[in-house]
# Entry
Amino acid sequence: MRKTVITVSLLLCFAVSVSAQNKFSVTYNLAFPSGNTSDLFESTSWRGVNFDYHHFLSDEFAIGFSTGWQIFSDELGFVTETSGTETLSGFRYNYLNSYPILLTGSYFFNPDNQFSPYASIGLGFVYNELNEDIGILTFEKTGWPFSVRPEIGIDYELVYNLGLRASFKYNYVASGDELPSLPYFAFNIGLVWTN
Amino acid sequence: MKHFNTSNTPIRLIGIISMAFLITLMGCYPDEPEYVEEYDIAYSNYSPDFSFSDSYTYSLPAGVLAIDDNRDPEDPPEFIDDVFGNTILERIRENLNAEGWTEVSEDANPDLIILPSAFETEFLYFYNPDYWCWYYSCWGWWYPGYFPGYVSGFKTGTVFIQMADPNGVENDDVPVVWVGALNGLLQGSNNNTIGRIERNLDQVFSQPPFD
# Structure
């Protein structure tokens, strides 16, 4: 069901993009764990990339989609964990690979200016792959939890139809399947261009 | 709203920077364990009904039993190399003696019988021709007169120790009141392996209920 929704949504986005103006961005993401994510990862994620597509329905309002890849990892060192009468010791590593696939609605406040702030909301799903490794064992949990992502940002036009983008997002990721809720904040900087 | 001229779009620059993003991302894929020791694990479990704080007598066999799927339990026992076997037995002895327990002969009716064993597990990755189904018809494949074998793999070693209580026999079954297991990659020199065995044996005997 989720795959169908995602596929149809992406097709709709592409279908309406034939003649109107479109905006694209590729950003590098710096992410900060929050909530349950910070229980599993103390470190900032320096590994992330995002691709955004906006299709303008009016001068200010655009719909589109957003996808990307964020990697959290943490080396916990030598850990001893006891559960009931069982105890397991070893070097622990946690990894989270997070791939959001969201439909977005964005409002650009001054689209004709060199500085164009915007606000956006994304709704969709995130494919999360959480690995908790110890020794040669890996305990893997995967799922497609629901996600809501409010975002604020600003586009700065460098040259004709090419600019820089900086934005700040909160990725709320619900618990689902076998995964806990794994939210995080992200600061993004990159390129934005239009056609 | 501005309507830009797409012919001026510096696509090449965007492409280069986008690729740089991706390459940076791939290049920075999270670090994994660097040393073989970091793949070691030590596991223990025990019966909550048994009192480990008392002093006991125990017996140890002369060697560490080699577990092999190709041999039946009725076959004559085989033991692992003394280089490792003696290390395992001596470290078990040191740890149990440190608990105030006393080693006795198996003929002297020990309170507990320690059963150390070891086995290897091989993980092999075989090449699966089905990966090419996207390119050519997926009929199934065979290799006339030969087999290409595995592409990659690794081997792990496990030391498994059981502590049996012969005084608690019920219906001919001997209760095992404690188990400890060490697992790690079988790589490195003998001295390295011995050091890892000693460290991990100390670890299982520092875990509950011995802590």
Observations:
- Chain B has three helices and seven strands.
- Chain B touches chain A at residues 1-6, 8-10, 13-14, 17-18, 21-22, 24-25, 28-33, 37-48, 154, 156, 183-185, 203-204, 207-209 (CB under 8 Å).
- Confidence is low (pLDDT under 50) at residues 1-7 of chain B.
